[in-house]
Amino acid sequence: MIKRVFEGHVDYMQILDEKGNMDQSALPSGLGDDAILEMYRQMSFARALDAKALSLQRQGRAVTYAPLLGQEATQIGAALAMRKSDLFVPNFRQHGVFIARGVPLYNIFMFWRGFEEGNIISRELGVFPYIVPVSSQMPHAAGIAFAQKYKGADAAVVAFCGDGGTSEGDFYEALNFAGVFKLPLVAIIENNQWAISVPRKNQSAAETLAQKGIAAGVEVMQVDGNDVIAVYKAVGDAIGRAKAGTTLIECVTYRMSMHTTADDPTKYRPDAEVEAWKQRDPIARVGTYLRAKGLWDDQKEAGMQEGFKKTIDEGVEKAEQFKPDPKSMFDNVYSFMPQTLKDEYDEAVKEGFWQQQR
Amino acid sequence: MQMNMVSALNSALDAILKENENAVVLGEDVGTDGGVFRVTDGLRSKYGEKRVIDTPLAESVIIGSSIGMAMCGMLPIAEIQFAGFMYMGFDELINHAARYRSRSRSTFTVPMIVRTPVSGGVRTLEHHSDSPEVYYSHVGGLIVVEPSSPYDAKGLLIKASRMKDPVIFLEPTKLYRLFKQEVPEEPYEVEIGKASKVSEGDDLAIITYGTMVPVVKDVVAQKKVSAEVIDIRTINPLDEAAILEAAKKTGKVLIVHEAQLGFGAGAEIAARLAEKAIFDLDAPIMRVGSDSLPYPFPGYEQYYIPNALKISRAIDKLLSQ
After folding, report:
1. Domains of chain B by start residue, with CATH
2. pLDDT of amino acid A29
3. For residue range B64-90, what is the model confidence (pLDDT) as tens digits?
4. Mutation test of the interface with chain A: which of B21, B53, B60, B235, choosing the one with the most A Cβ atoms within 10 A?
5. Is B313 an interface residue toward A (CB < 8 Å)?
6. Contact B73, B67 (CB under 8 A)
7. How many CA atoms lie within 13 A of A287 on its CB side?
8. Is A259 a catalytic residue?
9. Inter-axis angle of helices A169-180 and A138-151, to 10 degrees?
């Protein structure tokens, strides 16, 4: 005897298409023109910040940097759907979420200049530090969600990983754990199609990455990750039902730039693919929509960009004034100073090992 | 009250859960089953399934979720069923538990405890007898503790629960039920980072910890040598002062641990002695450990773990110098 014991499916959502046409019937209630303008501004700001960080890296004023170009809708849509009480767990590319959550530019530039002090982020902002090892942040997100449930807090946890990240064991362990305990977790796959040089199709034979959540028994959804409205709605809905359990959302987007400043994408991916995705730009389609409604024009655009430049330059300037004190390395290992560690510090000071660096 | 190490640990966990409402015990089979060694026995019926949590069988998320909980004001006490399975969560410990404090300049801290049974001598299957203390000590940022008595086990665990740091708490399986000792029923602390003087003596110093403490004590008693025996109890951070003091007092040092000899804790201790006490010594520093090969199947373990004869010969050699 054979009988079918399970069937699953994955829904795909798009509300604002690449030509700027809005599916008004699917537009979340309460999302008025002002909110859409704010989305546009935030995405544009993320792009401006990204361009600046890339330029700083090229000038040797920042360390290896992971650009977000092309992924603004996924990041800003998710960030703006979050409530103040919600918590955010990034990997290393969500600078857009950081700024939308109010993380000072100083912190972001400090991190990308190579100083831990960039992670001194006010706990009030509900943002956790960048995490580099792929998907290793997902178990933390599960634990953070566990703590919200344990304390009865009205808070959901939004965590990001990439398409490559879904191949990691930690991705599945975390989702499985969240599924068992029905944790208030919204796990977002920022599927930008490339894990450095490995394309999406070589990452998994699964037709969608969202369906990986079905195995963990959580809600799943796939959205147009270049449609800020769809991302906003999907994440908002998932937060709305977070008390009942976990949702996995695959945002289908594209990494228009390099993985990090350490690689050259022209070596491994076809120009035609990049050109095709340019037509699906997340910011341009909102701009088209707003201009058609008479809410945006070239003058407003110029004024906005000028304001961004000033804000960003101030953040950079502040970060570049920072002078590291090696003592901070020693002071932040344990809650106390072990004598053996103190001996190493004292020796360095006494012998002046750091004089040349200063 | 007379307690073995299992009941002392159980008593400590009971005290911690009672004292701190944000403390939870989590791991595989820690709930209804009370843990494979019964360390968490009875805790679920007392504190409920909200606080004594049977997790899915996945070490990385047991440790990784504990990190997340710890950053949100909880005190997770994770049990990893055997040290050999803890490597599945090694990345979370080395890359994250050890580093959140430093990477955020103490904005995000990880007060948590990971308990696991270590070392062999009880004829278990492969991967159930590892002595991994050095792996966790090398990175910095983790505290690594290993008691050798019921009294120390309870006091160190309670102390660990009151610190704001990630603590790797290693429990020698062989010592779980080896002997009982008088242990207060009330909570008390044993200082972390401080060695204990097991016996006083003048002829040589023996620096040891874990499963080797009772073996060393027996050898010293049988040989009737005057040995200053130090149980370091905390592998990292090391109580260097206590080690140097014992070395300076006796002029001869033997280091004994069950972990493999090569690159073991003994190497670290010997190096510190060589740097800071060499002119107080009148003999080369000696080490005894397991042979530098992977822990064997139980049929071979009697040839592998340092035994009384190996320690005894090392003492003879040292005293003849």
Report:
1. 2-182 (3.40.50.970), 196-319 (3.40.50.920)
2. 87
3. 999 999 999 999 999 999 999 999 999
4. B60
5. no
6. no
7. 14
8. yes
9. 20
